[in-house]
TrEMBL record:
Family as reported in the entry's similarity comment: Belongs to the cytochrome c-type heme lyase family.
UniProt KW keywords: Heme, Iron, Lyase, Membrane, Metal-binding, Mitochondrion, Mitochondrion inner membrane
UniProt protein name: Holocytochrome c-type synthase
Annotated transmembrane regions: none
Region (Disordered): 1-41, 65-87, 264-285
Subcellular localization: Mitochondrion inner membrane
One Pfam family per UniProt: Cyto_heme_lyase
InterPro entries reported for this sequence: Holocyt_c/c1_synthase
Polar residues: compositionally biased ranges: 69-78
EC number of this enzyme: 4.4.1.17
GO molecular function terms noted in the UniProt entry: holocytochrome-c synthase activity; metal ion binding
Functional description taken from the UniProt entry: Lyase that catalyzes the covalent linking of the heme group to the cytochrome C apoprotein to produce the mature functional cytochrome.
GO cellular component terms listed in the entry, alphabetical order: mitochondrial inner membrane; mitochondrion
Organism expressing this protein natively: Ixodes scapularis (Black-legged tick)
Amino acid sequence: MGLSASKPREVSGPLGTVTVYTKTGEEEKKPPSECPMHGVCDEITGASATKKPETYLSECPMRAGEEQINPSNMMPSPNQKPAPDQPFPLPTERQMSRIPKADGKDGEVWEYPSQQMFWNAMLRKGWRWREADLAPEDMAHIIRIHNSNNEMAWEEVLKWEALHAKECCSPKLKKFGGKATDYSPRARIRHWLGYELPFDRHDWIVDRCGKEVRYVIDYYDGGPVSVDSGRFALLDVRPAFDSFENVWDRMKVTWWRWTLQWRGHPESSGTSEAPQAPESAPTNR
């Protein structure tokens, strides 16, 4: 689909290299359209921009209008409608995670977005996909990768929470949000030492039987996607430095890791501070 009024730009991200279209100076001066593609309504719908098309909402890790955001996951209301220029239909079925939901009923878990919701999310995030670049089966792989990495992050959180098993044996995830460009102090220090920056960051708030504990998760590029697990990211998961208890936990774990490393323990390498050195630790990155 031609976009003569916009400038194409190749961008590499966690899901591969895509073409992003940005507005020219003249377009930025114009009042924004309510079309989901912002400024290319005529080319997408064939209609005049004076007739405002329907605004599509999606459950995506992006901020929309503040009144539309669910504070527990920083996502707009779920939307299963196909995008106006979508080249093929996508499933709307959603998968259940294994992550318990703090504000839900007993046994309730967080629910992952469907392929259709994820497609809408990427459009709102500024990505532009063409039919030649993406096949329907690719979305199934993308969802599998997304869900797998969230499950892996929760596994790392539980390793930390094991330090407080006597206090609370059933921690739950209360809310979360993405901070892709708000790099953590740890990530910045690693970058100063010559390592690459994470491509994404999440902050998760865990309910430890009534006590809120914030975790910082940095996502690093781990190379090719694992065929068996669908994992491609290396995770650095740790409690935030915002309470004495969290600081003490990290000090204890650091001491344990140093002791194991001194004794030549095979699982003591890597940069993650998790109580058990995970396979997801961003080693040599």
